[in-house]
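Structure request: Secreted protein, Sediminicola luteus.
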Amino acid sequence: MMKKVILSMLMLAFQFSFCQSESGSDEFWKTLKSYCGQSFEGEITAGASADDPFTGKKLIMHVKSCEENRIRIPFFVGEDRSRTWVLTSQDNFITLKHDHRHEDGTPDKVTQYGGTSTNTGLSTIQFFPADQETCDLIPHASTNVWWITVDDKSFTYNLRRLGTERVFTVSFDTSKPIETPNAPWGWEE
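Returned structure:
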């Protein structure tokens, strides 16, 4: 009887470890890396208003740089090439930062805001609540939560400012790569 119990426990442990061989963040990271070198056109699918600076502009993301633990994704709004989403993976957690540059490549005074996932998340979605650096830099953004969704057909970048009506989503069709745009401002090859 004891051998059966031990054998059953070992089998359960093996099944659990097999099912947990990769975390949601690992699978998410692999999907993100599969886009490397490609560019995609997007559209605002939530939060657009007539006076929004993104409205009516061509929106392009370029998964430009994929290192082992860092992926950089420039996000162009028309001719404005000031924004890059920087994702960093460490110990099964992913950090999202927003790198903003001026046309001459110097950092904007509002840059490097974002947050780190609080758990390993799912393979198709990761959440990034505002971190302390963001709270110090942009106090009204202290309740921001960003999230990114990925799968084999789409990538969405989302923002929700809790306690307000602020919401923003831009969606990209990753099944239709487009021509690679010029480098973002301040980019060093």
